[in-house]
Amino acid sequence: MSEQEATLQGNEDAEDQNVFRLRLFITGASPNSTRAVNNLKTICETYLRQNYEMEIVDVHQQPLIAESEEIIALPLLVKKSPGPERRLIGDMSDTEKVLKGLGISTSDI
Known about the structure:
Blueprint: H1 3-17, E1 20-26, H2 31-48, E2 52-58, H3 63-68, E3 76-81, E4 86-89, H4 95-102
Parallel strand pairs: 1-2
Antiparallel strand pairs: 1-3, 3-4
């Protein structure tokens, strides 16, 4: 690998570290799950723009993933990165709490 390729790879790795990796666990099309999906999408598009990856996991369809995450309540948002993992429970309707849980200061926006 050339020095230029190594630099480009280093830049991509640095960018990847700043991407918010989110996993939202839901229970089918229940009202709380639907609200959580809609609210989280709105928050991400408004505050994170193109800087996030979101995976939605229906615990009825993917029980092994849910089991491996030790789910205690639903809907549950797990922020994998950047920074330490954080978990938020609920329908994500309180934007300020969700942003705080993601480690985003509203004064930064």
